[in-house]
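Kindly go through one protein, given below as sequence and tokens. The question is how this chain folds according to its tokens.

***
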Amino acid sequence: MRAVVQRVTQAKVQVAGAVVGEIGVGLVVFLGVESRDTSADAEYIASKVAGLRVFADQDDRMNHCLLDIGGSLLMISQFTLLGDVRRGKRPSFTTAAPPQAADLLYEHCNAQLRNMGIRVATGIFRADMQVQLTNDGPVTILLDSHKLF
């Protein structure tokens, strides 16, 4: 499972012109699910995201996590994070999980975060989404449950 995590001052996602998810200060997570992923991968990503210390403390050091600041999270399913272009210029998505399996793990990750007390807004799985965000910093963190980076 792969995630791109961005610290934001605000973010929203629209589908067909309607806002379906919106947050203020917090994190936007773009999540890609691989066919080899399990619930353990979703739990790993949820734990990492919830505990990421990317928010400033009183000394302006990145020392607080989302829970510490009472921030929110916008989770966006994005299978294109698994696009492999090592052998050309057209991405291959052969490692991406089939939609039904990916949706179950995506929702499991969201449930884990909610169970930790985090407000989670989402896009719509498999929809054509327009995401607007203000990256704060900018701060962008890459996560991989298989620890490839």
